[in-house]
Structure formats: C-alpha cells, structure tokens
TrEMBL record, chain A:
Transmembrane segments: none
Name of the protein this chain belongs to: Acyl-CoA dehydrogenase family protein
Pfam families referenced in this protein's UniProt entry, alphabetically: Acyl-CoA_dh_1, Acyl-CoA_dh_M, Acyl-CoA_dh_N
Residue span(s) of domain Acyl-CoA dehydrogenase/oxidase C-terminal: 232-366
Superkingdom as given in the UniProt entry: Bacteria
Family: Belongs to the acyl-CoA dehydrogenase family.
Gene3D superfamilies assigned: Acyl-CoA dehydrogenase/oxidase, N-terminal domain, Butyryl-CoA Dehydrogenase, subunit A, domain 2, Butyryl-CoA Dehydrogenase, subunit A, domain 3
TrEMBL record, chain B:
PANTHER family for the chain: ELECTRON TRANSFER FLAVOPROTEIN BETA-SUBUNIT (PTHR21294), PROTEIN FIXA (PTHR21294:SF17)
Pfam families referenced in this protein's UniProt entry, alphabetically: ETF
Name assigned to this protein: Electron transfer flavoprotein small subunit
Domain of life of the native organism: Bacteria
CDD domains from the UniProt entry: ETF_beta
InterPro entries on file: ETF_a/b_N, ETF_b, ETF_beta_N, Rossmann-like_a/b/a_fold
Signal peptide residue numbers: none
Location of the Electron transfer flavoprotein alpha/beta-subunit N-terminal domain: 22-212
C-alpha cells in the first residue's frame, strides 16, 4: 500500500468515528437551534479539519481533491450544514493557493488552519450575473480603496477572511482578500434560510478598506475566471454533500421499511416501497460517481467544469426527490419536525440555488457539449 | 523508559461473518480498524509518555495491510512501529500469536512496560495479555481501569465484579486496560501526514529466533470446531408502570420474587 492510500484510509476511519460520535447525534439539534452545538467548531479546529487540503508548506495536511470530497461526503451523512461550512472554507483556500501571490499566501494560508475563509460574490444587485455588482476598488497611489456590500455569503459572519469580488473598472472584475481586523470591515445582516440552517449565511460591509497590491488575487480583471474556479470547486464538493444527504436518507428509509410492517409483512417487501428505495439508491450512486469523477479530473489538471456542474445539478434535484420519496415511505414520521427527513429535503433544496442555480448549471453543460463538438 | 503497545486490526463492522471452512473471521471486503480496547492501551501509553518522556513502540502481527493501523498509531503519537508479518504466522491461535509477540518484545530489548487492550472485539478471548506476560516471565495486571505512574512504579485501579483493587506494581510489567482507563483522542488530520516521518519496521519469522513448532497453525493447539451467534430470544416481557416511583417499586418486587434481590431483614 502506498503512502497516499494509507493516509486516506486513516483519515476516513477517523472521520467516520468523528461523525458517528460528535456530529450525527447532534444533527437535529443543529437544525433546530441553527447553530453548531456540542462545541462542534472547536472540535473541528482542534482536530485540524480546516487544514485538510491546505498544502503542507503552509502547515496543512495537503490531501487531494478526491480525498477532500470523500471527507465532505462522510460529514454530510451526519450533518449537511457542517459539510457545507467546510466546503465554503476549502473552495476559498483553493483560490488563494491557485491565484495568490507569495506574500498573500504567506500571510493568510497559515492562518486558514484556524480562521475560516469565505468567498463572496453576491450583492443585492447581482448574484448569478457578476457584472451586476456595485462593490468597487479604486487605486490611490500604491493602495486600493475598497467599498461595497456583499450578501448571502456562505459562512458570512463566521468566517474571518474574505475573498471579495469587486469592480476595478466599469466592466472589469477583480478579487481582493480582506479580513475582519481591517479598518472599515463590518459584519451585516444574517440570513434566515430554510435549510442548511447550521451554516451562517450573512453580509459584510466594506467602508474604505485599504489594501495594497499583494491582496489582489491573480491580476486585475481576473475576477470572473477566479469566481468560476471557486464555483467549480464548490460544485464538486456539493455533489459530495448531496451524496451524503442521500446516504442519510437511505439509512433512515431502509431501517424503517425493514422494521415497519403492514399486513404482517415488512414494507420493504412491497414493490411500491422497493421502487422508491431503489430510485434513491440509484440517485445516490450516480451523484457519487459524478462528484468523484469531477474530483479525479481536478486532481489530474483536467477541465472539470462540466462534470462539476453535472454533479451539482443532478445531485441537488435528485436529493430533493429522494427526500420526498423518503418522506412518503416514512409517512407521518417523515412529515414530522421531530424526525430528520424534512430537514434533509430543506438542506438539499438549498443546493439547487447556491453556487449557481441548476438552470445556470444546465447552460454551462449545454455550452460545453456544443463546444466539444464545434 | 520503553513501552510496547500491542494492537490488533479488527473488522469495522459488528456484523462479522465467519468463513464456514476455516471457522475463522472472514475479513474479505470489510474495512479494518484498531481494536477499540487497544485505542485505550495506546492512550494509556501516551499519558505515561507525557509524564516520563517514555518511548512508545506500537506492534501488531498480521498481513501487510495491518500497516494502516500501525501508521494510525504513529499519527496518534507512537514513536515507532513494528509489523510482524510472515506466511508462517498464518492460522495462529492466541498461544502461537503470544509466543511471536513475546519474541519480538525480547528482540526490542529493555522493554519496561507492555500494554494491551483487555481483549479484542472480534475474538473476545482476553488471553493475549496473560500469555505474553508468561512468555516474557514478567508480572501482569489485567483489566486496569485507572493508571498512574509515580516514583518508577505504576499505580493501578481495577474494578472487578465484587471488589475494587488498588495495586502498586514495579516495572517491568504487562498491563491490559479496559475502556474506562481513559478517553482516546481522534487522530489529528495534519499528524496523519507527518506520521510518515516515523519508522515502521517489518520483522519476518527469520528475524525472531523462533522455534518453528510454536508458530502459525503448527504451534496452535486450539481448533475451532464450530462457531455460531447466540440467537436473540425475547421472553417474559413486562412493561413497568410509567410513573418512575411506581416502576421502581414494581421492579424491586419482581426482583425479590425471582430471588435476585434479598428480602429486607
């Protein structure tokens, strides 16, 4: 066995045990209280989960994209919110690693072991349309002055370091890295979302934040490219989250259908139930294959935009449908707020919108298909 | 001070399948994990290491893929690892395994303390600690539930069925520990990567000065003729009252009727 295989196996053993003891038992409480109870974030930091894919030279564990996605998958089985909080952190770190200059990397990457990093594009005036944003950075001498308002940020309010998309000219998008200790940085309103309720989603306001060139990600004008890269990363990991949600649903429905009897027969023996259970299993396995393929392509330096979009588009719709089927199998228990099925549907539903809507995913997939045949 | 911790890789699942032909556990397709009690043995060694700066060597006997569990123990804090692996060891029972382990511990030389879990969760014999201690001809304390080291001696608490024992034991010593002994930590994500800087040595049969008749199947006097899981049978179900006070009264009454509790004198 090579070092990579052994490390991955040890890591997954640990993650399974951590999820079983520290995450899964608190899944309902996290959803109901909208917070990470059981000191979960402290335990996540203590065990260096935040450093999972951070390169070794910055003090991280340096695991690859596939391993990171598998860990996200395992965590999502226990609680999808925590998996999404980590997804938001990892995709942001990845852009600093990929596009940051040495000064920026040396400043922020070692901090990312303990401080959560977020990626913020959306504003009240634009989300899926990045040119619709109003935040801007103006050059004054050797400094940039940043102003603007970013909303609906995954981990907004919890994260301390932010990659922010701004205009550096009327039709020019760029990304800067700012943090919550800078003068002019303020936290704003927190959203009150339907699902993934453990994940803080909030606003930051930037009032004349002053940074130098080292805080620019890539070069001026690369905002869209870096934003797309962050989206691709996020979509692979969301495929992993959605797989975890469907695995959770399968655990619940198979257990219920095996023990629940109708006319002295476990309902798992009935074809109507079997079709639903089988469909959930097929959707789960398909989403898993899609995200693992996309992660493999990423690790091998291939263009994985289309596969990432497929993992998220297919996975999110499938997980909502699988949740609805699960609810139907569990009947009254499925419809109860005291059982987890209903919140799994709410959690999955978020991912038909976040990190690019499923409609936008289909546009990306269709254009890639046409492009490959042109 | 030198501590050897013996660990075993066991199937992750509790739903263990038995190979009908060999009557042994069928490990195919099942992920392995470090035996739960051995995690407590490792943690006990790490706690002593924190106080004494002892060297902790982790050891296991098994096929090459057991190296995953050794590497995990290194990531948890062990200093080095020894894998005892040879086709000649296949089919070993507890006696033959204990013989090989003790020979390997002797080869390490100057070992002050050997720590094992109280039993493995797959075979459940609880024999390995006593067997290794006998081969090494050192003192042993089994089922240690609290372990402290001071003035070069170990202070151990054992909770047995009817008595609680406080034992002070001199080194060298072999300990087996219960799951009450400590609270094992999770592997730290970054330490997994760093653990590959630590040495893992593989010893084969020829490295250990063994008597051929005492290893593997040849050295194993025990033969498993059949193996089965006990059937879960529900009987005498009786629902107690909902009110806790009434339920307690009712329970005491039933226990007295069945002579499990004695009547008040």
């Amino acid at each position: 066995m090579d070092q990579k295989t052994i490390s991955q196996e040890i890591l997954l053993r640990m993650v399974k045990s951590f999820v079983k003891n520290e995450v899964a038992p608190y899944d309902m409480e996290i959803d109901h209280t909208r917070s990470y109870v059981n000191d979960l974030l402290a335990k996540v930091r203590q065990n260096d989960f935040l450093s999972l894919m951070l390169p070794k030279e910055y003090g991280g564990a340096g695991f690859d994209g596939r391993t990171t996605a598998k860990v996200i998958n395992e965590i999502a089985k226990g609680n999808a919110s925590l998996a999404v909080t980590l997804e938001g952190h990892f995709k942001s770190i990845d852009q600093i690693v990929k596009y940051g200059n040495d000064e920026l990397k040396n400043e922020y990457l070692p901090q990312a072991k303990n401080r959560i990093v977020a990626f913020s594009m959306t504003e009240p005036s634009g989300g899926s349309n990045p040119m619709g944003i109003n935040s801007h950075a103006e050059k004054h001498g050797d400094k940039w002055i940043i102003n603007g308002d970013k909303i609906m940020i995954t981990n907004g309010g919890l994260a301390e370091i932010y990659c922010v998309l701004v205009k550096t000219a009327p039709t020019e998008l760029s990304i800067f890295v700012v943090d919550n200790e800078m003068e002019g940085f303020e936290y704003g309103k927190q959203e009150n979302f339907l699902g993934l309720t453990g994940v803080p989603v909030g606003e930051i306001v930037m009032n004349n934040i002053e940074v130098d060139d080292s805080h620019l990600l890539g070069k001026v004008g690369m905002g869209k490219e870096i934003g797309d890269s962050a989206h691709d990363d996020a979509r692979v990991l969301m495929g992993a989250v959605l797989t975890g949600i469907m695995e959770h649903e399968l655990d619940l429905v198979t257990d219920y259908a095996t023990h629940r009897k109708a006319i002295d027969t476990p309902i798992i023996q009935m074809q109507g139930i079997q079709r639903k259970v089988a469909d959930i299993a097929i959707s789960k396995e398909t989403t898993k294959l899609l995200y693992q393929k996309a992660a493999w392509m990423k690790d091998h330096g291939q263009d994985y935009e289309e596969e990432a979009a497929m993992a998220k588009a297919y996975g999110s719709r499938s997980a909502v449908k699988a949740g609805d089927d699960s609810l139907q199998i569990l009947g009254g228990y499925g419809y109860s707020l005291d059982y987890p099925i209903e919140h799994l549907i709410r959690d999955a539903r978020a991912m038909e919108i976040a990190e690019g809507t499923v409609e936008k995913m289909r546009t990306a997939i269709a254009l890639k298909e046409a492009e490959s045949r042109a | 001070m030198k501590i050897v911790v013996g660990i075993k890789q066991v199937p992750e699942t509790t739903n263990v399948k038995i190979n009908e032909k060999t009557k042994n556990i069928d490990r195919r397709g099942i992920n392995g994990v470090i035996n739960q009690y051995d995690r407590h043995a490792l943690e006990a060694a790490f706690e002593i290491k924190a106080k004494t700066n002892a060297e902790v060597i982790v050891m296991t006997m098994g096929p090459d893929d057991f190296v995953v569990s050794l590497q995990e123990a290194l990531a948890l804090g062990a200093d080095s690892a020894v894998l005892l692996s040879d086709r000649a060891f296949a089919g070993a029972d507890t006696l033959a395994t204990g013989y090989v382990l003790s020979k390997a511990i002797q080869k390490i030389n100057d070992v002050d303390l050997v720590i094992l879990g109280q039993q493995s969760v797959d075979a459940d014999t609880g024999q390995m600690g006593p067997i290794v201690a006998e081969f090494l001809d050192i003192s042993q304390v089994t089922y240690a539930s609290k372990i402290d080291i001071a003035d070069g001696a170990l202070h151990i608490k054992r909770y047995l069925e009817t008595v609680e024992q406080d034992i002070t034991a001199k080194l060298p010593l072999l300990l087996t520990v219960t799951d009450q002994a400590n609270d094992p930590k999770y592997v730290n994500v970054v330490e997994i990567t760093k653990s590959f800087e630590k040495p893992v040595i593989t010893w084969h049969a020829t490295d250990l000065n063994l008597d051929d008749d005492r290893v593997g199947q040849a050295g194993s006097p025990s033969i498993v003729r059949s193996i089965s899981s006990p059937k879960a049978v529900a009987k005498d179900n009786h629902k107690l009252a909902d009110n806790p006070q009434d339920a307690a009264d009712e329970l005491v009454k039933i226990l007295k009727e069945k002579n499990i509790l004695m009547e008040d004198k």
